[in-house]
Amino acid sequence: METRAPYVLIGAFVLAAIIAVFGFVYWLNNTGGLGPRTAYHVQFQGPVPGLLVGAGVLFNGIRVGEVTELSLVPDSPRYVSATISVARNTPVRADTKVGLEFQGLTGVPVIALEGGTGSTKPGEMPTLIAEPSAGQGMTQAARDALRRVDSVLEENSGPLKDTIANFKTFSEGLARNTGKLDSIVAGLEKMTGGGTPAQKVTYDLRAPQDLGPANKTLKGQLAIPEPTAVAMLETQRMLFAPAKDYPGFADFLWADSIPKLLQARLIDSFENYDIAHAPLRAADVGQAEYQLLLDIRRFAIATEGAPAAEVVLSARLVDKNGKVVASRLFEERQKLDKVEPASAVEAFNAAFGRIAKTLIGWTVQAA
After folding, report:
1. Mind giving me the DSSP string for 27-59?
2. How far apart are the C-alpha atoms of 318 and 326, rounded to whole Å?
3. Can 34-132 and 201-366 be said to share one CATH topology?
4. Which residues contact 306 (CB under 8 A, 6 or more apart)?
5. Which of 30, 158, 208, 326 meets the CB 3.0–4.6 Å disulfide criterion with 353?
6. What class is the 34-132 domain?
7. Three-class SS of residue 97?
8. Taking the domain 201-366, which CATH number applies?
9. Beta partners for 280?
10. Where do the structural domains in the chain lie, given as residue ranges?
């Protein structure tokens, strides 16, 4: 059985294709850049390095056509003649300025048209005269610039020579006075706190050892959180009350901030008393039977009257339900032989040892 082709559809497709081709040609001739053109002669009074047939033609920065022909002028070897083809509506005049522009540092040169106020006769192909420096290459421009720089240097050779001589004299003076300059710089560093920082000396607090036999032990698990304190006590520096500047304490540091140091040494003291039932830090245990809450009232050297190390702690023993079982204020004072780091540390060790011993006995009895 012979299949009948859909001749109507095939004919419609062919007709549509023909219409599309005619439409494309019409677009090229009227919109796409192949419309009516006007040709102009351009004469360059020098070389045009890099200019090629097909290079673009710009008018006020807008591409309007291209170079269609390049040739030499037989009677004038210095001149170059070019023919350009631009869109018919381009307002080219007899006095339109002509030059060369480079599109980018290494781009192809294009002919640049700009302005013009004259008029041209219909059907006439006017000749546009390019500016004398239009064909000047970038190399030539660099040569001219270097030539101008050389001229400026030549004109100012005298002052430049004097300036260099003054620099030489100044540098020789610096070399002769290097030792003095080093002393001045060292003095400035010392005055402003610069230079190599002094080595800090770290001191620790000692937990008491001789706490007697553990006649009574803790009934349940005890936790000791980090003691609370005012911001002034959150430091590793030695504190004075009232504050004074004593020599020898500038490089002094406790082994840790005062609250953390007291927490650690109190736990050590409980362990020295009865390690089997020693308390833990609050973060190391879940639900403890008791918590020993401490607040640091004072941990400083009292400077009024005879200097002495003062340690004052406020203690509260709280059960797991948050009820305060017992509370007490602990205070100790130890005189210093003299106000120096070693003597101060020994005084704090003695005062803290007595507080730790009393605090342990009180806690064991109250828990």
Report:
1. HHHHTSS-S-EEEEEEEESS--TT--TT-EEEE
2. 7
3. no
4. 335, 336
5. 208
6. mainly beta
7. strand
8. 3.40.50.10610
9. 223
10. 34-132, 201-366
